[in-house]
Amino acid sequence: MAVQKPSIPKGTRDFNPTEMARRNYIFDTIKKHFKRYGFSAIETPAMENLSTLLGKYGEEGDKLLFKILNSGDFLSNVSDPYLAEKNSQKLTSQISEKGLRYDLTVPFARFVVQHRNELVFPFKRYQIQPVWRADRPQKGRYREFYQCDADMIGSDSLLNEVELVQMIDDVFSELNISVIIKLNNRKILSGIAEFVGEADKIVDITVAIDKLDKIGLEGVNREMLEKGISAEAIEKLQPIILLQGSNSYKLVQLKTILETSTTGLQGLDEMNTILRYLEHLKVNNEVELDLTLARGLNYYTGTIFEVKAAQVQIGSITGGGRYDNLTGIFGMPDVSGVGISFGADRIYDVLHETNAFPSTTNDDVTVLLVNFGGDEELYCLGLLRELRNAGINSELYPENAKMKKQMKYADDKKIPFVIVAGDEEMKNGHIAVKNMTTGEQKTMSMQEFIQSFTQ
Amino acid sequence: MAVQKPSIPKGTRDFNPTEMARRNYIFDTIKKHFKRYGFSAIETPAMENLSTLLGKYGEEGDKLLFKILNSGDFLSNVSDPYLAEKNSQKLTSQISEKGLRYDLTVPFARFVVQHRNELVFPFKRYQIQPVWRADRPQKGRYREFYQCDADMIGSDSLLNEVELVQMIDDVFSELNISVIIKLNNRKILSGIAEFVGEADKIVDITVAIDKLDKIGLEGVNREMLEKGISAEAIEKLQPIILLQGSNSYKLVQLKTILETSTTGLQGLDEMNTILRYLEHLKVNNEVELDLTLARGLNYYTGTIFEVKAAQVQIGSITGGGRYDNLTGIFGMPDVSGVGISFGADRIYDVLHETNAFPSTTNDDVTVLLVNFGGDEELYCLGLLRELRNAGINSELYPENAKMKKQMKYADDKKIPFVIVAGDEEMKNGHIAVKNMTTGEQKTMSMQEFIQSFTQ
Hints:
The structure is a homodimer. By secondary structure, chain A is an alpha+beta fold. Chain A has helices at about 15-35, 50-55, 60-65, 80-85, 90-95, 105-115, 160-175, 185-195, 200-210, 210-225, 230-240, 245-255, 260-280, 345-355, 375-390, 405-410, 425-430, 445-455; strands at about 40, 45-50, 65-70, 95-100, 125-130, 145-155, 180-185, 285-290, 305-310, 320-325, 335-340, 365-370, 395, 415-420, 430-435, 440-445.
């Protein structure tokens, strides 16, 4: 077989042991808090029926789904006209019935409806799995990446939003990332659209305003004009877009702005309630009411969350919101839920940039035993067993190689302790321990060495 | 949008929280021992280039790969003749360039060669990820399933085989599954084929013999005859296939059988060495030299492993072996490696059948606080914070629902403790704790309650 130069598809990544230790540090921290807050894990298949995925992510979404070719003779049932036309789009549904999941929210909604009789409601699940999108790969944008989601479904209580803010605060406090937790509410946005007289253009308005950070106020206004929003409406929106001040101040202003909008006042009431709860609880990071926050997805019907790193210029690192009818698509209407998704890759980038990864992790091998071959090797196999029984990750160099080579191996793998148990040590029943970090060498019994770990 | 009855593709599964806890029990146990033995984690993408995957799994393998349809206008570059012929097989390579990984071993080999300059050799990696095969789904056979692999590459020392046997022994001892760890050697099988005068038919012989458990001796002999193996050779094979007795006895018999085969004697020497090491070490489970063991894959060149559950009728639950030239395909020849793969789904089935899953796991929510609304709710939010800070997984019911409903929630979710902190408890600074398992109710301070956990 001809030699193939090894490579992987664009937008995908391999993770070596160091990267894995860092990624797991992030996942384990998030998972710990998911569990702490009473969420339980589920997993769904990588492959969903295309019918589950199509039409859920907007116009562009369908194009970004990875589709799986049917097995066997996939052309046997296709229409000849489509083939003759070379119509890729029409042919797809005839040669493909499955696709890779694009996010964890639609699979979650499908799961809840499919298993509704087995679940306890309100149902609180977390899910940490990869998702796939055929995006154009760029910095921070991959074709395969993990999402870390926590959703609660079956309760419209705002206490759930409060819990999620606290959970976000706990996760980022533990990761040592200073954040701004931004809140908005879809009903407030509806109220604003009503107030400026363009109630039916809420999507165009919010999509434009959401880009404020990226394209500036002039860019936002230009886009709204292009979408047919009246000049008067745009004028009325300016002070709202530019509204500064404390959350309390903004709430007071909004009371006036939204006073004729039932929906708007409802959203304001929800926001008031959430912020009042949070005042009673200790939150380390800043919580900000941001009226320009909309986020791309259409299914949010209430509170909208977004988290930004306070000290690093990067897109949002966590997002989410309340949705009143996600499961309706699958036949279970009127079940309210709210959830958030941690962007593990962005969090990785922030920790990398702020040099905030811990220097060691539990994954590391702690001890290397030197291999002298023969009887000493057998003796060391016994010592190895003692170390492992004591819970210490250890290995014995697999061959009787030169000492220099074995020490280099320990050094390259950053193994902190090398144990020498040769002829002499065997006789004494002692071991010679070299601390690879300090360079210090000490003779002791294996028992002493093990005890120094369990203290 | 019309209502779609939710379902998932055949051969795939959802996992609810109870199933997740059980699966994680298996993965966490295996992972703990992987790390204990000095293996480090890596991950590779779900999607590999088709060129990496094709031709690596035998004739049938290519058909069982899931292929990913190219994005965009995938028909634009196809040959019209293929379209006209409706030739699915020829068209595949024109409309698909990526596939889902079929196992973890080929991606591992590709990874090693691609990253050879970053790795420390001998390289010991573990990998726990799902793989995908378009098999016909049946009991115990899924289209998406996890593999738990540990491989060491860059050393031909037999100590590595010994380590793997010990690791298998440790894992199944901890899982409380009694197993038989079967060993064989590809060189011994070569030697046997030479001995019976059919050296070039080793594959046909071993494929047939490997089916002994499934089709019996008559079936095995019939198959060998069909494959053109001479009657004399089949006659000479009978006593070898039926060889019983201790490992030492078998080794003695093999010495005679293989005496004119260099390769055979080499294999025998390797087996002798491994078994002698194991005699010096404490192994809980049975280790058996099984001359009928071959396993399907062609890349094994030395030791072959297979693990069977001693008390449950099920296929193999772990397998693996030594391979001298896996990375050669990708341009790095002559690097020897050895590895094993734990079949998590089969292990799940064994634990299920023997009722050996532990009754509780760490994932469970430990405390539910009852929600009375108003001031009591706010007070309970404070208690919740105390519980979580102490590391106790807790939740507050999200609404002021009837007590009966809240208790049912705790019961359905198997939450072991329900805490009531209403008007009276607030005044006293106490909490009323109900133990849901015993039914016992007790009043105490939060501090007392927390201490009872950390003891």
